[in-house]
Amino acid sequence: SLFLVLTLVSVFVCGFGKRIPILSFDEGYSQLFGDDNLVLHRDGKAVHLSLNERTGSGFVSQDLYLHGYFSASIKLPADYTAGVVVAFYMSNGDMFEKNHDEIDFEFLGNIRGKDWRIQTNIYGNGSTSVGREERYNLWFDPADDFHQYTILWTDSQIIFYIDNIPIREFKRTAAMGGDFPSKPMSLYATIWDGSDWATNGGKYRVN
């Protein structure tokens, strides 16, 4: 099995003027899939997600959010993780199948001895013409320790942060029209087998 450990997300909803305390899992989240592959720790304030030969695992927020600051402390699986997709993201694809919004942090697996890369994605109103994938080499090993991954989403911009360092800024422009994320979204964290495409286009698969 491969293991992902995630400290539950802290959320600051823009415009409310106050920080929402970190909720326990049962107070703020629901399991999506994975049965026993999701294990709670620290009184429900941390989640251990795993991937085995049968299934991955994941969870979703019980609330929808329209803008905010969403941050999670994540430690990734170590060693050979080719084909393993780890995602911390927002989406409303379950409600808007043809014109959904999405904001993603994604890890697409790693080959032993290679630099880790992280991918960010943005979809607005189902459009694939703006905000698509951008990948970055990390300056650390995300499997050695916990690191903070943050999405700031306002009505005018989206900023991705790692350990409070901005790595990508995506500004809304008039030319985008409606193709900027503007509908309420749920918050997700998942680990799953993406061998067919994740690492070097599917060249390296889950072991």
UniProtKB/TrEMBL annotation:
Question: Which keywords does this Swiss-Prot/TrEMBL entry list?
Answer: Glycosidase, Hydrolase, Signal
InterPro entries reported in the protein's UniProt record: Beta-glucanase-like, Beta-glucanase/XTH, ConA-like_dom_sf
Signal peptide annotation: 1-17
Q: Which organism is it from?
A: Gossypium raimondii
Give all residue intervals belonging to the GH16 domain. 1-207
Question: What biological-process terms (Gene Ontology) are attached?
Answer: carbohydrate metabolic process
Does Signal count among this protein's keywords?
A: yes
**Official protein name in the record:** GH16 domain-containing protein
Molecular function (GO) terms listed? Answer: hydrolase activity, hydrolyzing O-glycosyl compounds
| Pfam families membership | Glyco_hydro_16
